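User: I'm preparing a small set of examples for a lab meeting where we compare how different chains pack in three dimensions. I only have the primary sequence for this one, and I'd like the structure in token form so I can line it up with the others. Please keep the answer compact; I'll paste it straight into my notes.
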Amino acid sequence: MPEFADTPILASVIADLGERRRFAAADAERLRRRLADVEAMHEPDADGECPTCRAPAPCPTLRLARGEVDYETACAAVRGLIDLTAYERLGPVAPSVPRLADLLSGSTDGIDRFFDVLLATRQD
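Assistant: Understood. Below is the structure token output for the 124-residue chain.
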């Protein structure tokens, strides 16, 4: 039996990954369009008020859509329970995005085991 007899399996995995990437790109584009629609609906008018929420600027819904505030904070601001300008001084609530170098420096034991088993190179 040739050393790489299971190569069609890898080709199938790669083709599936390509198809999933196309679906993910289409989903991301759909989400970008939806976010643009939400942003358009919640842009402040000449008085600085959101025409949809009827809340003073900054619009809590727009801040929520951009990830600048969490859901509870946005609801409290729409109800008039808190002032978003005071809340902004506390800093961002969105989690920080890790650097690519930090992500790549992590262990890949699970992926290595997967491909070892897939290629039948590892005997456990």
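A couple of notes for your slides: The CA atoms of residues 38 and 48 lie 17 Å apart. The two ends are 21 Å apart (CA to CA).

User: Perfect, thanks.
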